[in-house]
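Below is how a single chain appears once it has passed through the pipeline. First comes the sequence as given, then the structure the pipeline wrote out for it. We keep one example in the README because the format questions we get most often are answered faster by looking than by reading.
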Amino acid sequence: MYDAPHQFEPLLPAPKQQEALLSKAHDLARSATQLAGLPIAAGLRELLRGMNSYYTNRIEGQHTRPLEIEEALARKFSDNKELAARQRLALAHIDAEAAVERRYSGDAGARQLYSAAAVQDIHRELFARLPEADRLTSEGEPIVPGELRQREVQVGQHVAPAHGSLPRLLERWGKYYGEIRRGEAALLALAAAHQRLGWIHPFIDGNGRVMRLHTHALLSALGYTNGLWSPLRGFARSVDRYYARLADADLPRKGDLDGRGNLSEQALVAWIDYVLDVCLDQVGFMAGLLDISAMERRIAACLVFEEESLRSGVRREALRPLHYLFLGGGELERGEFKAMMGLGDRTAVSALSALVRRGLLKSDTPQGKVRFGLPLHALRFYFPSLWPEAEADAAE
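Resulting structure:
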């Protein structure tokens, strides 16, 4: 069993091995900062939380369809016990992600995330939201939210460190990565920290979920996401490489040309490179989808389809206020929204009601302010290919 902190070094590749990675991280920092500066409706962020939960479930082999997540958000759970448990897990991820982002924000939050307390907090946020009956491993062992494991484990070929060494390993992990706070090096650090946290394997179950939430929260705290993208989608869409790169970086070094630590430096470089590629791909994809002029055309196409094909009561005159809400990310009084449509009062009332009924507008009360809505059935118009599985569900 591993019991000394040096056993999971190198924690970062040597400076010479970092050069190409830092160049790629520079590109990521620049493009992600530009994307994060876009003013976007909160409805998109809500949808992306659901998407993140869908993809992290898929990575774990606990598949939940997007429509089933949407039903769970409306507190409509399946009669199938196993599916209902997966729905509750998806909701727990959505709520935990929001809570962790709020708690760990800005530079101070990023520093806090590199601690055993924060790692345990993420685990607690996720699993404490589940009923006791759902907090069981596949072998039926109880999962105690936030509790470090109390026994030894082996994951595939990796024999995890002795449970008694976890506090020391987590202290070393947090101290080392927490001192790399700014710039491109921080992106290399969060990628490496993801893998090394998996090597430590602090919990009896839920380690992968905690690792991904930790990386997601760090990117948010460092100001790179603004809720508009996450590597979770990219990890899920390349899940075989995700697991292979993680496992490779657990392996001992392969001779004198593979670094000076206990573990393979080449494999750690390959892992970090993979994470940066995933992030760059997700940022580029979202930047294309969020092109402002294209977004106006997509909303218009959705409204025309609703009006002409579905005859849902939605009117194309809603384009201007809907686009305004999307860009502003806020709310409008119902009277303001109706005035921006330029319709007669009775027609405007009917059209607004149809928009709420179809989920294209959200409101907390029957007469309350309205905000931009993003139902699954509108995805194929608003954000084509963002969440193909959700589009397929909505088409059924």
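The chain has two domains: 5-288, 292-395.

See the next section for the split statistics.
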